[in-house]
TrEMBL record:
Superkingdom, taxonomy of origin: Eukaryota
Name this polypeptide is given: Uncharacterized protein
Cellular compartment(s): Nucleus
UniProt cross-references to PROSITE patterns, sorted A to Z: HTH_MYB, MYB_LIKE
Function field: Transcription factor.
Keywords: DNA-binding, Nucleus, Repeat
Length: 170
């Protein structure tokens, strides 16, 4: 009844991967390609389940994975794609070569989302929200409005955001 589990929990390793396991997985995939993930562990001589092998390969071992800091262009692309696609991280990752869906999701939640909130921008709708506006950073974002009243600062921030949105469309 239904599909059998991907692994019979007996004898299956859990926890961190060893360098030897990484090497076995990499060598097997280089020779045979990433075929059937359910049978791969046994064929490669690994004591892991297929899902674990698939995730290890796609998130860490793939040779085309880009490591390191996100560029300004990548960050702008993530913001633009998120405004269109929402939290569909794999769809966003498909448009950013070398970045994994998990890496993009983590970067969004730890960096971009928080920055948008501080700027008074709703990270879900990408629209200005005056109740989120941190007036302490407004002078940094809008130096012209640094000495102005709160209302003028808010107006300057909205104009700044509009220019930012228009720049993304061009």
């Amino acid at each position: 009844m239904g599909r059998s589990p991907c692994c019979d929990k007996n004898g299956v390793m859990k926890g961190p991967w060893t360098p030897e396991e990484d090497l076995k997985l990499t060598q097997y995939i280089q020779m045979h390609g990433p075929g059937n993930w359910r049978t791969l562990p046994k064929n490669a001589g690994l004591q892991r389940c297929g899902k674990s092998c698939r995730l290890r390969w796609s998130n860490y071992l793939r040779p085309d994975i880009k490591r390191g800091r996100f560029s300004f262009e990548e960050e702008e692309s993530i913001i633009q794609l998120h405004s269109v696609l929402g939290n569909k991280w794999s769809a966003i990752a498909a448009r950013l070569p070398g970045r994994t869906d998990n890496e993009i999701k983590n970067y969004w939640n730890t960096h971009i989302r928080k920055r948008l909130l501080r700027m008074g921008i709703d990270p879900v709708t990408h629209a200005p929200r005056l109740d989120l506006l941190d007036l302490q950073i407004c002078p940094v974002i809008c130096p012209i409005a640094a000495a102005a009243t709160v209302a003028v600062r808010i107006l300057a921030l909205i104009q700044f955001y509009r220019r930012l949105c228009l720049a993304r469309l061009i």
